[in-house]
Amino acid sequence: MPDYNLKLIIPEVFLFLWALFIIAFDLGTRRRNSKLIGYLAMGGVAFTGILLSTYHGGFAFGNMFKSDMLAVFFKVIFLGSAFMAIGSSFGIITDKIKNHRGEFFGLILLSTVGMMFLASAGELITLYIGLELTTIPLFVLAAYYKDDRISVEAGLKYMIIGAFSSAIMLYGLSLLYGLSGTTDLLAMKINLAYLFLGNNGLGWGPLMAIILVMAGIGFKLALVPFHMWAPDVYQGSPTPVTALLSVGSKAAGIVAFLRIFTDGLFGFSIEWSMILAVLATGAVVLGNISALRQKNIKRMLAYSSIAQIGYVMVGLVAVNQLGVAAAGYYMFIYLFANMGAFAVATIFCDKTGSDSISSYAGLSKSSPALSAYMAVFLLSLAGIPPLGGFVAKYFVFAAGIKAGYTWLVIVALLTAVVSLYYYANVIKNMYFSAENPEFKIKPPLSANIVLILGVAGLVVFGVYPEPILNFALDAAKVFIF
Amino acid sequence: MDFPILSYMIFIPLFGFIAVMFLPKEKHTLIRWTSLAFSFVPMILSFYLTYVYYVNFSGSADMVFTEGPFDWIAPVHVQYFLGADGISVPMLFLTGLLSFISILASFNITKRVKEYFSFFLLLESGMIGVFCALDFFLFYVFWEVMLVPMYFLIGIWGGPRKEYAAIKFFLYTLFGSIFMLVAILVLYFTSDPHTLNMMELIQTVPGVMGHSLQLFCFAFLFVAFAIKVPVWPFHTWLPDAHVEAPTAVSVILAGVLLKMGTYGMLRISWPMFPEATRFFAVPIAILGLIAIIYGALVSMAQKDLKKLVAYSSVSHMGYCMLALGAYSSVTAISGCMFQMFSHGLITGALFLLVGVLYDRAHTREIAAFGGLGSKLPVYTGLMVLFSMAALGLPGMSGFVSEFMVFVGAFTAPAPDLTIYTAIAVLGVVLGAGYMLRMVQRVFLGEFNSEKWSGLTEINVREIITVAPLAFLTIMIGVYPSPLTKIMKATLENLVNLMAR
User: Which residue of A has its CA nearest to B22?
Assistant: First the structure.
């Protein structure tokens, strides 16, 4: 009999029940109290975090559910992104989504449950189910403005691409099962090493599996050349959903990658890290250069997030302890910076109805605090010290240099200079413009919590990164290099 | 030292940055005086530091006032480590003084006062940090931290092409910095045990690092520093940034920021990579020579007063590069340090004075003026004084530094720079050319009485801002030995390190 160890999945179970409770509560109160629902959802996420800090460490259901430090680390990121997405969507639920508020939050929480299962997956089936549970609610959420053609288009596009990429990935996973005879990732690592490392070279079977799985995850992460869907979906979706897509769901992709490649396929790390290096180069070059031309802030942030994931990939390419920790650290900082930037975009759009970058002109005069927050988020994304984004980039590049990928680091750094141009372009509009907008934006309390949390995270972990770095290094110890 | 003076110098302006941000927006006077107070304290500390160093430590090449190394990010060996020696003390003195003067000179700013002064204090904090950081990561952080306030200061309060100038400055400098970051990481992973401590790296790098890797790191660091100096052909950001920036920011740019490039070379590149320094010495001297001649010729052609001063900076920093090429001569390296210090004083003052005129006349076009000498005698006197200092008139600091550079570079045992030095002396003649022409066209000749009858004389606050600079320029010109004494032991040690 395997050891079920049920208490390890208490956080997931609670969040799942809470999602159902929120939907039911909204119905029960006849959708009257939109703010209360929002705060209940935020509180539920926070409480899940507390549960997680108590119930973790060890394996459940045999080896299928691993509650190791890696899982905990990424679960914190997922919960953070859900918390911040919910916090920044109060304006939307009072104005635009009047009839399905409970479902909106419920779906965000369900998607988060999926991510949490994914992070803990010890074998391929659990991983795949986690992935589907993550993405299916997101299809619905992307199309949530059901009267808006762009939003519906986004939802549809995301669903088709999502189904397509899942199929590709599933094909790759089935090949892996065929090659190794197991779905358990640890056993797979041993079996594959036993079967293939004696022979010279990779052979067609594993190569196909690597390419298919990488393509599948590449679609989820919007890595170049699998990124085509991202800008349209990001633009069309409600902005908090875009934020969740760009942080939570990407972090889920990263952890899936880590579980499959850095663990299961560790034996082939030389081969797949080379492929990944090429993908990372494509992401940082194409993402940053395409972002230069964008006039819509959500599209700009979409391309920027393609590039940002490219930087995370530099850490994964390194295939060493520092690299995995750096990638984790990067995602952690990226959570604050990107969620924050999207929160500002949401609040701005609630007030003005515009997503165009030029409409930010002169914002610093009418809303100095909001502009200052936005400047901090963007400068962190650009990697300017002493904000967290710089430290994160430093760790990632250090890992790359350590692994001997100096060329990749130089390319990534050069594109980071390019990225400054479009981030600074928003700042230029907010601060340097002579325009004096008439509107004054006062974010609601929930959004202020999100914004201040974001800025505080970036400043504190930029100046004092050690606690999170140690946490990430602990998470990286899950892998044996 | 029990009293962490360097930390206080860094963190008092930083605290001021936060404090000013929380002041009420419309209380302009309060904001101005608070900022002045927050920059006054580091200035006094920098004077005290210089005095203590002069009296107690000027005979030795050791780092003093050290703080740390304390662990900052232990898993990657990042430390908080500060210290000062004969190279940093004059720069800290200059930064403290010029920051205070610049804030005083900014009292006439009326647009978004609160943001202006808080950014200025953040800038000061970063600059002081650069000059005393001894950990590579810390150095890089300070080096970059400055860019943000600078970007805002040029972009919000600048001239007509401010947006272009601001982003050009930001991108250009960041472009240079990434090369430094790569070099830092390579150095970190080459050293064994891994360290980012500059003092340790200076000791160990020549022993453990291969020749080609040394050249690689040196070249990468050189790009970062050369953009800051700026060395020809990396100078194109400078005229834009200097011309568009508000007066006080131009003062800081010319007086302090440019020195960070040469400071970085003296503090890091030269002692850490002696082999590479020898390898690249002649090309560097040639770049310096080109800058001297090119900067002077372009200055001559300028119609805008501020642009003229900006290009003269390119020329003057060229002397530093020529001197750095003569790595084996203590005289040349001292000349470089002297030039850094004196250029900070002179060009800072020139920018202040150009700003004074611009505030009144709202134009900087040389051809628009003429005969101002009769209308504004005090202003003219000051302007002529600093023009003479800039062209290297004996008795002023500019002469001392240029003379030292020439003597040092001419007599340096290695490499042979005699021909280049001989050509570089032409720069002095050209310098006299553009400066005298400017003086003649602006202050002498016929006075356009209907156009400029409303010009008012320089006021007391403005005189206070340039008076200390005038005093120091003349003092060093007549009696340079205190400055020599401060830097002598450190620079001798530096030349010894480069002979490894």
Answer: A369
CA distance B404 to A310: 51
Q: Does some domain include residue A470?
A: yes
Per-residue pLDDT of chain A (481 residues; tens, 9 = 90+): 567 788 889 999 999 999 999 999 988 887 777 788 899 999 999 999 999 999 888 888 888 898 999 999 999 999 999 999 999 988 888 778 777 888 899 999 999 999 999 999 988 999 999 999 999 999 999 998 888 898 999 999 999 999 999 999 999 999 999 888 888 888 888 888 877 766 666 678 888 999 999 999 998 888 888 888 999 999 999 999 999 999 999 999 999 999 999 888 888 888 889 999 999 999 999 999 999 999 999 999 999 999 999 999 999 999 899 999 999 999 999 999 999 999 999 999 988 888 899 999 988 888 889 999 999 999 999 999 889 999 999 999 999 999 989 999 999 999 999 999 999 999 999 998 888 888 888 888 999 999 999 999 999 999 999 999 999 999 998 888 7
Residue A29 lies inside a defined structural domain of this protein: yes
Reported pTM? 0.94
Compare all CA atoms of chain B with the CA of A465 and give the residue at the minimum distance: B73
What is the C-alpha separation between B295 and B424, in angstroms, rounded?
12
Map out the domains of chain B as residue ranges.
1-272, 280-500
Quick check: A395 and B76 CB within 8 A?
A: yes
Residue in B73, B74, B156 closest to A431 by CB: B156
- The tally of CA atoms less than 13 A away on the side-chain side of residue B285 is 30
pLDDT tens for B203-237 read 888 888 888 999 999 999 999 999 998 888 888 89
Instruction: Give the domain extent around A124.
Output: 6-476
On whether any CB of chain A is under 8 Å from the CB of B189, the answer is yes
Long-range contacts, A19-28 (Cβ 8 Å, 24+): A19/A44, A19/A105, A19/A106, A19/A107, A19/A109, A19/A110, A19/A113, A20/A106, A22/A102, A22/A105, A22/A106, A22/A109, A23/A102, A23/A103, A23/A106, A24/A102, A25/A102, A26/A101, A26/A102, A26/A103, A27/A102
β-partners of residue B80 are B70
Please tell me if residue B73 touches chain A, with a CB cutoff of 8 Å: yes
Interface touch A470/B75, C-beta < 8 Å: yes
B384 touches chain A (CB under 8 A): no
**Quick one: which of B308, B275, B88, B122 has its CA closest to B198?**
B88
Whether A113 is covered by a domain: the verdict is: yes
State the pLDDT at residue B69.
Answer: 87
Distance in Å from the first CA to the final CA of chain A: 31
Residues of chain A contacting B, Cβ within 8 Å: 322, 379, 384-386, 390-391, 394-395, 397-398, 401-402, 406, 409-410, 413-414, 416-417, 420-421, 424, 428, 431-432, 465-466, 469-470, 473
In a domain, A1, yes or no: no
Cβ count near B190 (within 10 Å): 18
Reported as a single tens digit per residue, the pLDDT across A458-468 is 999 999 999 99
Number of independent structural domains in chain A: 1
Which of B 162-181 lie inside 8 A of A, CB atoms? 162-163, 166-167, 170-171, 174-175, 178, 181
> How is residue B231 annotated by DSSP?
P
